[in-house]
């Protein structure tokens, strides 16, 4: 009887309450999130959530603007795309223009060099200092409206009590309710993936195994999608990648993989990591053939190409998913596609992914945050809203080399997603630009000078 | 881009910069955001490496000279005021400024200061003369390896011959200005867009006129 004498009936009640709330919590979770994920249906809760949020953001932005006007503050308003109106003229045209405007002579007696020629390069240089096309792609896009996240707002000052309260409420909801929910889901999703794919690995190869592996992958990715509250709209699903093809997409963050893989089954390509990622990768490959490379193998381009082409030739294997940019770009543009995946010669299925930045910026700035930090930020945003367009398949045409083919695919993706099509290499995020570009400009200018020399000697 | 761009720049500072350079409020905040995004070390100043990180500038044949123009003599860091002061040279001259108080000091984007900026791109050692060597250096930067030394030399000689008036085989700032013919080309596209100016020189034209 001893210890039970001290048992407080209040504790008993507390235990019962906790027990009930946990049960309710888990039932709700199961019914509204996990079961739909298994079957791929949706209750539409997320879309309703999205609409409500949009209304609140509009109100908040309106409030800030009004408050700024009242206080005679000038708001910092970012704007999209270029700030300098550049006409796409060539070096030669522009220098001739400078020379023409500076003189009243006829162009027939054009001299080979004018001291004013430096102004072409000077202007280009200062233009690029004020704003250039490349460096701004490696940091998060700026927003015009405020989405109640201080991390993406530059005008946040105390405007009104109501706004601050709303923001505070937002913080509480995001960190107190949404974040734990999402983390639970994420762990569930990943855990199920590892366990189930390992189990399936024991089955003999055959149609049953493929079918089950597909279902398991889809289910777990769908749970992960809900773990991020990702609201995805898929367009043109009739163009979905088929076996024996290569799917290419623009790259903004690691979440791209989850978004695409929750709507179709792909064979992933990548480097084997250590730690948790490595565990996931190893168990995934038991269920269906993904292509993982050791770190040393990544450098060997021939080996990579061989493994990829072996995979696509086998039509029982799933389409490969590749991100040819090679690095994460901030979703305002598409940068140079590396030609490796376009040399293989199979059908390419381009996919364009465009995130809606109003709900949370999905770009992973790997120099600023590590992976875990990034995932936490994602899970404490409001939602991740994006659109996925499946573009019609493309193949390499006669007389087109891999680089041209890659540019063509890139242009199609950029056009569909409303992104800027850039020729610059995403590797410029970390590395220096090659000198060949400077040499090209020098060559063009030299042709201008020497060209007139030849004309002179001819006449 | 830079964090809390507009809030880190105080209103008084913006006013001072406005007076000194003539840029508008929104242009200054925009450029400040640009400044902070280039400033990877986050210490409020830019070094030459920060400029070099802009790919379009790194491939510009005159990139190094342009970067140099931002750094005052002998220094390796430029702060936001210095940054704005250099960029101010590229604002066009607006009509209402011409009627301003003549006793006030010359604005940064005056004709003379624009020409001085251009002159200093050539004149590396700041001795107020563009020597044959300095001209050759700039030419070499612009053409790379595509033109031989002899050809380049003859181009340089010809240019100096046309411009030089006092026979010292180099081009002084007065010779630079006197034979200059100025034109402005505006690239205007609204308040948020930045305006750049061209300065055009026609060395040969005035030489012809003066020799007749």
TrEMBL record, chain A:
Residue intervals of the Phospholipid/glycerol acyltransferase domain: 245-356
TM region positions: 20-45, 159-177, 183-203
Pathway terms, separated by semicolons: Lipid metabolism; Phospholipid metabolism
One Pfam family hit: Acyltransferase
Keyword Lipid biosynthesis: yes
Family statement drawn from the similarity comment of this UniProt entry: Belongs to the 1-acyl-sn-glycerol-3-phosphate acyltransferase family.
Protein name (database record): Glycerol-3-phosphate acyltransferase 4
Underlying gene: GPAT4
Automatic annotation (TrEMBL), chain B:
Entry's Gene Ontology molecular function annotations: calcium ion binding
Domain of life assignment: Eukaryota
Subcellular location: Cell membrane; Cytoplasm; Nucleus
GO biological process, one term: protein transport
Keyword terms: Calcium, Cell membrane, Cytoplasm, Lipoprotein, Membrane, Metal-binding, Myristate, Nucleus, Phosphoprotein, Protein transport, Repeat, Transport
SMART domains recorded: EFh
Domain EF-hand: 26-61, 110-145, 151-186
Pfam families attached to this UniProt entry: EF-hand_7 (PF13499)
Cellular component terms (Gene Ontology): cytoplasm; nucleus; plasma membrane
PANTHER family from the UniProt entry: EG:114D9.1 PROTEIN-RELATED
Family of the protein in this entry: Belongs to the calcineurin regulatory subunit family. CHP subfamily.
Entry protein name: Calcineurin like EF-hand protein 1
Organism, as annotated: Oncorhynchus kisutch (Coho salmon)
Gene transcribed to yield this protein: CHP1
């Amino acid at each position: 009887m001893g210890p039970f004498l001290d048992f407080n009936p209040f504790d008993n009640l507390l235990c019962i309450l906790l027990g009930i709330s946990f049960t309710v919590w888990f039932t709700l979770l199961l019914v509204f999130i996990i079961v739909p994920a298994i079957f791929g249906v949706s209750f539409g809760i997320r879309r309703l959530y999205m609409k409500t949020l949009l209304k609140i953001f509009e109100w908040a932005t309106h409030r800030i603007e009004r408050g700024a006007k009242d206080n005679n503050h000038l708001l910092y308003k970012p704007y999209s795309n270029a700030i300098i109106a550049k006409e796409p003229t060539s070096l030669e045209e522009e220098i001739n223009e400078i020379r023409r405007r500076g003189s009243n002579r006829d162009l027939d007696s054009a001299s080979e060099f004018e001291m004013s020629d430096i102004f072409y390069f000077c202007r280009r240089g200062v233009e690029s200092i004020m704003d250039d096309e490349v460096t701004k792609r490696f940091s998060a896009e700026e927003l015009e409206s405020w989405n109640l996240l201080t991390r993406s707002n530059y005008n946040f000052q105390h405007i009104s009590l109501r706004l601050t309260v709303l923001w505070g409420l937002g913080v509480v909801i995001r960190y107190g309710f949404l974040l734990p929910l999402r983390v639970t889901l994420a762990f569930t999703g990943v855990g199920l993936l590892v366990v189930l794919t390992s189990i399936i690995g024991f089955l003999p190869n055959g149609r049953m195994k493929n079918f089950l592996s597909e279902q398991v992958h889809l289910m777990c990715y769908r749970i992960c999608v809900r773990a991020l509250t990702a609201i995805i709209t898929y367009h043109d699903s009739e163009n979905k990648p088929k076996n024996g093809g290569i799917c290419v997409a623009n790259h903004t963050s690691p979440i791209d993989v989850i978004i695409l893989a929750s709507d179709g089954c792909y064979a992933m390509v990548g480097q084997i990591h250590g730690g948790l990622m490595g565990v996931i990768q190893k168990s995934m490959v038991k269920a269906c053939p993904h292509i993982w490379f050791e770190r040393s193998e990544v450098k060997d381009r021939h080996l990579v190409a061989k493994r990829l082409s072996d995979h696509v030739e086998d039509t029982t294997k799933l389409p490969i998913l590749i991100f040819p940019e090679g690095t994460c770009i901030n979703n305002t543009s598409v940068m140079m596609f590396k030609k490796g995946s376009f040399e293989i010669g199979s059908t390419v299925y381009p996919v364009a992914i465009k995130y809606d930045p109003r709900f949370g910026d999905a770009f992973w700035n790997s120099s600023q945050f590590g992976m875990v930090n990034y995932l936490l930020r994602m899970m404490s945003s409001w939602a991740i809203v994006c659109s996925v367009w499946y573009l019609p398949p493309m193949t390499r045409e006669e007389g087109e080399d891999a680089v041209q083919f890659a540019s063509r695919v890139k242009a199609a993706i950029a056009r569909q997603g409303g992104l800027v099509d850039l020729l610059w290499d995403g590797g410029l995020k970390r590395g220096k630009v090659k000198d060949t570009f400077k040499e090209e400009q020098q060559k063009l200018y030299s042709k201008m000078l020497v060209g007139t020399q030849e004309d002179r000697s001819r006449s | 881009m830079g964090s809390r761009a507009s809030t880190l720049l105080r209103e008084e500072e913006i006013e001072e910069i406005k007076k000194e350079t003539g840029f508008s409020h929104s242009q200054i905040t925009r450029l400040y955001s640009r400044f902070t995004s280039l400033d990877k070390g986050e210490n409020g100043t830019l070094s030459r490496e920060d400029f070099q990180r802009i790919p379009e500038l790194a491939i510009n044949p005159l990139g190094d000279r342009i970067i140099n123009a931002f750094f005052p003599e002998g220094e390796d860091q430029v702060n936001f005021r210095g940054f704005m002061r250099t960029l101010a040279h590229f604002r066009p001259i607006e009509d209402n400024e011409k009627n301003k108080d003549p006793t006030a000091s010359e604005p940064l984007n005056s004709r003379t200061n624009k020409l001085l900026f251009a002159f200093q791109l050539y004149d590396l050692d700041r001795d107020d003369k563009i020597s044959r060597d300095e001209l050759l250096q700039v030419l070499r930067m612009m053409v790379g390896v595509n033109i031989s030394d002899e050809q380049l030399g003859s181009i340089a000689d010809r240019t100096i011959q046309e411009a030089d008036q006092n026979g010292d085989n180099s081009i002084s700032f007065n010779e630079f200005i006197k034979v200059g013919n100025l034109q402005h080309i505006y690239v205007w596209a609204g308040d948020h867009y930045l305006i750049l100016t061209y300065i055009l020189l026609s060395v040969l034209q005035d030489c012809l006129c003066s020799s007749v």
